[in-house]
């Protein structure tokens, strides 16, 4: 069969997205520690809303798996192949600020059920950088509280 266009692949990915397994959401691996910025796992798939937009404006919902000041990883449903370096628009709705920025795909992998994308923010304004930093801090506090037995999301 012919290869699907980016539009078709991104559009199809919006149909059914599932969160990462619980062990993957809270595991901070050695790989994360080698990054330029610390990535914090997002324990609740509804905490950050994400939409990826192709060149033609087609939108695909994504589950944010982890977040840092310089990037994020997200899971989309279905098998999608995006080459390293592909640029997409990304809309994030954080607790205190909606953000629309450009991301560059740094990793794409998965299976027929879902695709995991590692993306770098490439056009963050200082205001959006600050909003993401606050979200990372809140996530770190939440995970620490949860580890200590307190569940409330810090403000």
Shape: globular
Distance between the termini: 50 Å
With strands numbered from the N-terminus, the spatial order across the biggest sheet is 2-3-4-7-6-5
Sheet of most strands: 6 strands, antiparallel, barrel
- Percent of residues in helices comes to 25-40%
Overall number of strands:
7
Count of alpha and pi helical runs: 4
Rg, nearest Å: 15 Å
Q: What's the overall average pLDDT, rounded? A: 79
Report on this model:
The chain is 25% helix and 33% strand. It is built from four helices and seven strands, in the order H-H-H-E-E-E-E-E-E-E-H. The protein has helices at 6-13, 22-26, 30-33, 126-147; strands at residues 40-41, 49-53, 59-67, 71-77, 87-93, 98-110, 114-121. Strand 5 and strand 6 form a beta hairpin. It is globular and about 40 Å long.
Question: What is the strand and helix layout of this fold?
Answer:
Layout lengths: L5 H8 L8 H5 L3 H4 L6 E2 L7 E5 L5 E9 L3 E7 L9 E7 L4 E13 L3 E8 L4 H22 L8
Antiparallel strand pairs: 1-3, 2-3, 2-5, 3-4, 4-7, 5-6, 6-7
Question: Main traits of this protein?
Answer:
single chain; 155 residues; alpha+beta; six-stranded antiparallel β-barrel; 4 helices; 7 strands
Can you give me a brief rundown of this structure?
The protein has 155 residues and is of the alpha+beta class.
């Amino acid at each position: 069969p012919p290869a699907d266009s980016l539009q078709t692949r991104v559009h199809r990915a919006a149909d059914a997205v599932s969160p990462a397994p619980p062990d993957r959401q809270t595991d901070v691996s050695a790989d994360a520690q080698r990054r330029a910025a610390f990535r914090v796992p997002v324990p609740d798939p509804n905490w950050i809303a994400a939409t990826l937009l192709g060149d033609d404006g087609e939108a695909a919902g994504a589950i944010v798996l982890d977040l840092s000041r310089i990037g994020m990883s997200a899971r989309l449903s279905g098998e999608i192949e995006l080459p390293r370096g592909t640029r997409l628009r990304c809309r994030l709705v954080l607790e205190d600020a909606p953000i629309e920025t450009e991301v560059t795909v740094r990793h794409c992998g998965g299976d027929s059920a879902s695709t995991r994308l590692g993306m770098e923010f490439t056009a963050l304004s200082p205001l959006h950088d600050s909003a993401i930093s606050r979200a990372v801090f809140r996530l770190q506090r939440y995970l620490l509280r949860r580890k200590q037995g307190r569940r409330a999301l810090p403000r």
